[in-house]
Amino acid sequence: MVLKERQEGVLILSLNRPEKLNAITGALLDELYQVLKEAQEDPGVRALLLTGAGRAFCAGQDLLEFGEGKPDYEAHLRRYNRVVEALAGLEKPLVVAVNGVAAGAGMSLALWGDLRLAALEASFTPAFVRIGLVPDSGMSFILPRLVGLAKAQELLLLSPRLSAEEAQALGLVHRVVPGERLLEEALALARELAQGPTRTYALTKKLLLETYRLSLTEALALEAILQGEAGRTQDHEEGVRAFREKRPPRFVGR
Asked: Which InterPro entries does the record match to this protein (predicted)?
């Protein structure tokens, strides 16, 4: 259910239930979590690209998985939560390429990308309120940080269907490109990141995530601590050396 392909240090992951618009099941969540865990520990993976197979990115939870019974959402969300925590804590850059609809939890997953691209024909909708549910999969955390509290309330309460261009205007995606060029551009971006100082990327991601809960004094202290760690990396030494020698740096991610 999760296709994997490697290209030049980039691990390409494709949600692969195209006949169901890549709707999420418990089994897909378990597989995605395992893949992310392995990618985290694999030094050969220097960046990741997440997309969907077929004409959708992800239509959210597959409600048919629950049959006629009443699901235990609290228990089920534990499977989502560990995937979200794996995405948020990923110490490697993550590019998300939204090739079609991203709805509900599928939209949540897309928003956890460090850099997010969308095809012109892609669309986004929170969808939770349409079936009487609150946002989950980290959407209540990430959405207001991207668009602000007032706009997040509007999106979550009204659940509009946003075009790719509307999503870009709100800051939900960084770039909108023609569908036939989406994977090409997303892969080029992931390859560029894979050649960069990936340890520094990890520290930067950690800093940005942590500072939301810190005071200015605490944020400044954390900057100093993480800068000290970055300053001890091989990549910092290489970056300074390349600057002095007036050549492009050759980063190794350490």
From this structure: ClpP/crotonase-like_dom_sf, Enoyl-CoA_hydra/iso, Enoyl-CoA_hydra_C
